[in-house]
Amino acid sequence: MSTPFELAFKYMPTPAFIIDSNTGRLVSFNRNFKALFDKLDASLPNTWETLCEDANHAEYWHMLNSKIQCGNIERCDTLIRIGDKLVSMQLDFQHLGETVLACAYNTDNMDLSAADNTLLKFALTESSAGLWVWETDTDLVSCSKSIATLLHCSLEQTPRSTTEWHALVHPDDVKKLANVVNEHVALNQNYYEVEYRILTGNQHYLWVKERGRSYSKGVDGSIKKVIGFVVDISHQKALEEHLRNQATFDELTGLLTRGAALTHFKKQLGLAKRQYTPLTMAKIHLDANDRLSHLPMEARNIAIQTSARYIYKQIREADVLARVEADKLLLLLPNTSVRDAKNLLQHMINPSEEETATLLVGNSEPTDFCIGIAAFPEDGETIDELALSANQAVENGQATCKQIVVN
């Protein structure tokens, strides 16, 4: 070793030693590592096999060294022999070519908020992010203060095991979280990410994203510790929900969009085919007299919104109503004959006095409505065919000044 390296190695505060890559022989120790043995009046080991309790055969070091060289293991948890005593240690490895530098951290106290690992202790105490560390063997979870803040609880009330953690996770998300984490550990993966809802101290579920990473492994490559972050993504989820609603529901009327309604239409058509029940489709033109097109944009939107809400209140629970064009709606009436459909739609174009007054306030007039009816299977056997037939009936109604026309 060069003189500067020798001095840095000798006086570094962390106990450390150097291993010959090819033989597993321990070639050098710094003073703090020697001190561990001096305290117990124990002799320093000369090989990896005499130091590490897990090394039960001569080829053990070569297997571990191969994993260190490939970057599969950067740190590991193991038991080292100090005289007659076995001490739990975390060893951080750095491959130096012909040798490997190993730094040792005592982890007998696995409550990492009080552990000798200074960096972890600082991170758990001071981190502004939701940091946690999980020891897989003992299932001990240590949380930072920020997780307590995130969960609206004291640090003492934060989860201390996966069982306690999962007890806070939304029942619909527990299995997904468990599967992701179990797969991470079982397959010795380096990283995972998962989103779920977790219950806070004020009894509200919060959407979070959890990112976990293998922190240390056993000398056999198995994961011993996982470190990770929990981040509040509730605002992101709210935006996603808003975008989904925009894609599913028409922003002006609140009705289904054409694309969203198509799924419902196909489902009802499939039921009608299997059960041999009637099904009727109605195309509703809200401006058959071309009155709305001459109104200002705001007044026209109010009229369309008012008409759509009025029609929605008239339909039954099983019926499906969608806005398919600016001033046109498509209504699917499951298990409904043409005669029953006409009776229902007749009421729409002949509202009560109270309903008429409400419509007029919203710039809507029921005399503007023109409705075309198509029936399955007479007028079509697919949704597109039925919609085309209903649209043709509307055009016929406009041409003949009739409000309800059966194709």
Question: Any overview of this molecule?
Answer:
The protein has 14 helices and 16 strands. The longest helix is centred in the middle third of the chain and has 18 residues, at 258-275. Residues 108-116 have low confidence and may be disordered. Helix content is 39%, strand content 27%. The chain has three domains: 3-106, Beta-Lactamase (2-Layer Sandwich), CATH 3.30.450.20; 112-237, 2-Layer Sandwich (Beta-Lactamase); 249-406, Alpha-Beta Plaits (2-Layer Sandwich), CATH 3.30.70. 35% of the residues are buried. It is α+β, with helices and mostly antiparallel strands. The strands form two sheets. Strands 1, 2, 3, 4, 5, 6, 7, 8, 9 and 10 form a ten-stranded mixed β-sheet that branches. The protein has helices at residues 3-11, 31-39, 48-51, 60-70, 118-126, 145-150, 162-168, 174-186, 234-248, 258-275, 297-314, 338-349, 353-361, 383-400, and strands spanning 16-20, 26-29, 75-82, 85-95, 99-106, 130-135, 140-143, 191-199, 205-218, 223-232, 256-257, 279-285, 320-325, 328-334, 370-376, 404-406. Keywords: Nucleotidyltransferase, Transferase. This is Diguanylate cyclase. InterPro entries: Biofilm_reg_signaling, GGDEF_dom, Nucleotide_cyclase, PAS, PAS-assoc_C, PAS-like_dom_sf, PAS_fold_3, Rev_trsase/Diguanyl_cyclase.
